[in-house]
Amino acid sequence: MYYAVHQAGKAIAAAWAEGEWRATGHGLSQDSREWQDDILRFRVKPQKTPGVFGIVAGTLGTARLTGRVELGALWSALPEASPPAGGDSWPLALPVYPFSNAAYPLSSEEGAGAPSWVSVCLRGQPALVDAEAVNRLLATYPGAADTRVTTYQGNLQFSPTPWGPGIGVMWPRTDMQEQGKPSSGGPSRFYVHDRPLAYRSGEERWLIPRVGHGSDWLSPILLWWILLFGLSLLARYEPVAWRAALDLDQSPVADPLTQLLDDALVIVPALLFDAATQDRGSIP
């Protein structure tokens, strides 16, 4: 699967990269620090030469990996994917939905810069009942810049989402017509500092945490790319640890890891298709 992504990346670069481009190597390598047979602590780092990974990241106009990163952090940051067991050390991607209360329409027409309201599911987070605590958590997500939790008589407002209860959040909105972007209504109107939160299709939007030693904010396709690279290294060069991780009788990550790889067969091709067919500079 990793080599399929690597090859697809070359196709994306061939289609979209400006001018002549050459890429040798992966652009990624294993970090030599001890990981004590815990695959979630296995680390990948960028190489000095960008390789195919760096060329594709530059072509897509997204951030690149600048420091070492643990596989558990990459896995936890993935939209849609169920988090790894024992992965409490890393922040999770958070789904964002239109607020279900009709009093807070997602595509309100108050004018440029007027806020709208969404529901953010804090999946995997401890139960937070204090608005300031939630605001501090959201402040760690780059895509949630300038958002604020909404309260009624001092209490948080909750709305059901497919991932569990979501907290009502006031979301800043920019005027897309001024940005030269089509105004189609609905969730596609949501931008924070001109950065779309859209992910694949449907109403879901996702807040993605920073990852790794370089605190990098990576698009989903690059998160998958690095994660699959790391897992491929384990499968090829660390067979004892890899087999132990897949042992359903002993390993706490075996079941979620198997599910992750099954999900990857559906999610990754869709992300690659989006990356290959969208305009340059958009985030897949």
Describe this structure in words.
It is a single chain. By secondary structure, this protein is α+β, with helices and mostly antiparallel strands. It folds into two domains: 2-91 and 210-277, no CATH class; 94-207, no CATH class. It is 31% helix and 16% strand. Strands 4, 5, 6, 9, 10 and 13 form a six-stranded antiparallel sheet that branches. A three-stranded antiparallel sheet has the order 1-2-3. Strands 7-8 form a two-stranded antiparallel sheet. Helix 1 crosses helix 2, helix 1 runs parallel beside helix 7 and helix 5 packs across helix 6 (239-245).
Question: What is the structure about, briefly put?
Answer:
This protein has 284 residues and is of the alpha+beta class. The protein is 31% helix and 16% strand.
Please give a handful of descriptors for the protein shown.
single chain; 284 residues; alpha+beta; 2 domains; 3-stranded antiparallel β-sheet; 7 helices; 13 strands
Strand content: 15-25%
Residue ranges: pLDDT <50 for 5 or more in a row?
A: 101-114, 175-196
So what's the overall shape? Answer: globular
Largest sheet: 6 strands, antiparallel
Q: What is the CA-based Rg, rounded?
A: 20 Å
**How many distinct helices?**
7
Question: Roughly how many Å apart are the termini?
Answer: 19 Å
Helix content: 25-40%
Structural class: alpha+beta
The tally of beta strands, per DSSP, is 13
| Mean pLDDT score | 81
The overall number of domains is 2
Q: H/E series, N to C?
A: HEEHEHEEHEEEEEEEEHHH
Write the layout of secondary structure elements.
Elements: H1 2-16, E1 28-30, E2 43-46, H2 51-60, E3 69-70, H3 71-76, E4 94-98, E5 116-121, H4 131-138, E6 148-149, E7 151-152, E8 155-156, E9 158-161, E10 164-171, E11 191-192, E12 195-196, E13 205-207, H5 220-237, H6 239-245, H7 254-277
Antiparallel strand pairs: 1-2, 2-3, 4-5, 4-13, 5-10, 6-10, 7-8, 9-10, 11-12
Helix pairs in contact: 1-2, 1-5, 1-7, 5-6
